[in-house]
Amino acid sequence: MVDAANPIRFGILGCAEIARKLCRAITLAPNATVVAVGSRSLDKAQRFIADNGLPPATRAYGSYEAVLDDPAVDVVYLPLPTSLHERWAVAAAERGKHVLLEKPTALCAADLDRILEACRSRGVQFMDSTMWMHHPRTARMKELLSDPNRFGQLKTIHTIFTFCGDPDFLQNDIRVKPDLDALGALGDVGWYCIRSVLWAADYELPKTAIAHHGSVKNRAGVILSCGATLVWDDGKVATFHCSFLSHLTMEVSVVGTRGTLHLSDFVIPFEETTAKFRFATDSGFKELVTGWLPLPSEHVISTDLPQEALMILEFSRLAGSIRDSGCKPDEKWPTITRKTQLVLDAVKESIEKGFEPVSITG
Question: Which SUPFAM superfamilies does the entry mention (predicted)?
Fold first, then answer.
């Protein structure tokens, strides 16, 4: 574990709203600290430092390059628009900085591969910022899904992540701009749906993606709402729906031959310190079909740190083990990221081809 007296030092590229959340997470994590913030405007970087209560010694820079050139920065967190990810993540890795990258990680798998190769060649840790992966609830749910006596064999997964963007969001947010975040809702909220599907399937890639009819794009051609079916050779099936046009919803259902897992807040728990899910095993109907027996059990998982701080804790542990003990980067995280990107790319291609099936190959 990294000594709190010698924490992993973060530099933040850009002052996006999500960077405020990660700034708080870094502050909460005992093995991490923010030492530099860079923006295209020095004044904006200074305001970010002041507004987020960072120590006065935190360095403000009027360029991203200056953060990368700061020898005191161990890790670079990039909350930039997706169109800028490849350039700046590669530049960070080439300067020997570990890379924590916002999702979606790239516009396509080819761009992501250049990022991952840069990280691999310099021996730096890569991780995408999918926060729910680090909540203790996620580990507990995986234990139940892995129990053949309670869950059985995986059959199907259904997941939804939507929120209803207001008129200003739909007109002006970077996530609806083709030159900034061309993947739109598929990249932003669809990323979480695809990741949850892969997580439930032990990261076994589906063989085929078939986008659903009825996807919606704005006038600039950016996806505002879409969905897809994912199919495996062994008969497993998953569906997901993601949208900027529907009420806030974060559903996951995972169905096996003997059990079902369900939760309604998988990306951001309803509460920061506790998170719930339901799990049913060997359920059937009561006599005269008047109810269920046994009823699903409700599980409540508590945490002292929010999931984003736990992500920082884990990332800093990995970066510290490389810095202090000469360990190799953990390849699990870039592998999971790449599989998520491959499925996302296939869904996008299916939409572009008129909802034809698209094969997914690793």
Answer: Glyceraldehyde-3-phosphate dehydrogenase-like, C-terminal domain, NAD(P)-binding Rossmann-fold domains
The number of beta carbons lying within 10 Å of the beta carbon of residue 235 is 10
- Are 104 and 89 in contact by the 8 Å Cβ rule? The answer is no
Superfamily for the 133-306+341-359 domain: Dihydrodipicolinate Reductase; domain 2 (3.30.360.10)
pLDDT, tens digit, 9 for 90 and up, residues 163-189: 999 999 999 999 999 999 999 999 999
140: how many CB neighbours lie within 10 A of its CB?
Answer: 15
CATH architecture, domain 8-132? 3-Layer(aba) Sandwich (3.40)
Please report the sign of the dihedral spanned by the C-alpha atoms of residue 47, residue 48, residue 52, residue 58. negative
User: Are the CB atoms for 282 and 258 separated by under 8 Å?
Assistant: yes
* Residues 6 or more apart in contact with residue 95 via CB below 8 angstroms: 68, 69
* SS3 call for 95: coil
Phi, psi of 144 (to 5 degrees): -70, -40
73, 49 contact by CB (below 8 A): no
Q: Which of 26, 27, 33, 40 is nearest to 6 (CA)?
A: 33
5: confidence class by pLDDT, cuts 50, 70, 90: confident
Mean pLDDT of the chain, nearest integer: 97
